[in-house]
Design brief:
By secondary structure, this protein is mainly alpha-helical. It is 52% helix and 7% strand. Strands 1-3-2 form a 3-stranded antiparallel beta sheet.
Amino acid sequence: MSKGIFVRIRDEKTWNEFKDFVLQKHGKLHTALGEELIEAIKTYLKNQSTHTQLSGKALKEAEALKKEILKYVRPGGSLPQNFLETMVRRVSGVYDRRSIKNRIETLLAIGFIKRDWEVDPIKGKVYRVIGDEAGKLR
């Protein structure tokens, strides 16, 4: 199954360089462009730790958040987003959406939780707890 997407590219020079690369490699753009884009995304995700900059209060609060989560959910268990947001409010004392989102993104970035797309394939509002070993701060 394939999924059609629309993306707005602001860096036209880079996009044209990518298309030229695909054209040289495959001799065509149709189908090959999508395949090469998927490979580029996979490579980016595999090396995501080099792209993620963790800093600030959210990183300092990550250990306390992990401990709080593990009181209620064992590694491998699922956690709805609204319950996770409640824990963030309680532990971090933040109430605005951006700060809460920042704490959740930090837990995602350190590998302590991940989105459970099987449970909620549309919105990704359910998280799977990976565990305390995977979520050690780097």
